[in-house]
Amino acid sequence: MTGRFIRQLRKLQLFYSPKGGSSAGMRSYLDSKLVQFATSNPHVVVEALCVNNSRHPFLKACFVSGKQNVVGVKNLTATDIEKHVKALNDSMGEKVPRTVKPVITRNSSIQGNWNPLTAKKDHLSKR
Questions:
Q1: In whole angstroms, how far apart are CA 73 and each of 29, 42, 98, 115?
Q2: What is the chain's alpha carbon radius of gyration, rounded to the nearest angstrom?
Q3: Is the N or C terminus of the chain more exposed, i.e. has fewer CB atoms within 10 Å?
Q4: Positions of the chain with pLDDT under 70
């Protein structure tokens, strides 16, 4: 959701195979939980589409911003697919930005601080 509580998911497409073994969880999700999701989220256009038998099931989410996310749900159970659908419904379609921060510590290294003569101690001791 965004700051104004506007859901960003506009269209959810569920692709599955009518006979494929990897689509068993998707078919059980369609039979048991899809109607409940569609009625509780009227802002989302839900489409269940059959594909040929040689493809694995997947979810395709289209967002207000025009972004699309595709999630593979091969061999997942109906509850796992429900978690993916809920996550897509709650997301904005953007990738999570990676935050890179410098490492700050109160303790110095166990090995001690480095100086230019650290590597030359053996050379100096031979004299």
A1: 11, 23, 25, 54
A2: 26
A3: C
A4: 1-4, 108-112, 118-127
